[in-house]
């Protein structure tokens, strides 16, 4: 089975930083796409950042220049470095992996940014 465990969320003030981690139970060798999504109350889940084919990266316009997605292949861990956080970044953040066309999700970690 594939297990994803997110951590690193919390409560921060506007302008602060957080680093989210996603530890996977499988080797990244078999993963085609890895990404971070977020969902705010009453809103649909949206893509924040992704790594495609273990190299190319894409970011939502709202986080470009502030967030950085990265991975540590030796530890099978995905990261999201979040800087200059804004209240509108408040949401539950989810890690997602795609293996042979199947999406796997973590349980989510809450990020709350106070103004």
Helices and strands, with pairings:
Layout: E1 4-7, E2 10-13, E3 18-24, E4 33-39, E5 46-52, E6 56-59, E7 67-72, E8 77-82, E9 91-99, E10 102-105, E11 109-114
Parallel strand pairs: 2-11
Antiparallel strand pairs: 1-3, 3-8, 4-5, 4-9, 5-6, 7-8, 9-10, 9-11
Detailed description of the structure:
The chain has strands at residues 4-7, 10-13, 18-24, 33-39, 46-52, 56-59, 67-72, 77-82, 91-99, 102-105, 109-114. It has 115 residues and is an all-beta fold. A hairpin with a 6-residue loop joins strand 4 and strand 5. It is globular. The termini are far apart.
Short summary:
The protein is mainly beta.
Q: So how many helices?
A: 0
Number-wise, the strands total 11
The percentage of residues in β strands lies in over 45%
Task: Sketch the topology as an H/E string, one letter per element.
Answer: EEEEEEEEEEE
The rough form would be described as: globular
The low-pLDDT segments are none
By helix and strand content, what is the structural category? mainly beta
Alpha-carbon Rg, integer = 13 Å
Q: State the major sheet.
A: 7 strands, mixed
The N- and C-terminal alpha carbons lie at a distance of 40 Å
The helical percent reads under 10%
What is the typical, i.e. mean, pLDDT?
A: 93
């Amino acid at each position: 089975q594939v297990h994803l465990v997110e951590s690193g969320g919390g409560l921060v003030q506007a302008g602060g930083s957080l680093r989210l981690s996603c530890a996977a139970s499988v080797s990244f060798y078999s993963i085609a796409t890895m990404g971070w999504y977020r969902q705010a109350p009453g809103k649909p889940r949206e893509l924040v950042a992704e790594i495609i084919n273990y190299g190319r990266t894409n970011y939502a316009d709202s986080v470009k220049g502030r967030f950085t997605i990265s991975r540590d292949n030796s530890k099978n861990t995905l990261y999201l470095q979040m800087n200059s956080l804004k209240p509108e970044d408040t949401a539950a953040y989810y890690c997602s992996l795609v293996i042979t066309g199947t999406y796997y999700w973590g349980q989510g970690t809450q990020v709350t940014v106070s103004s």
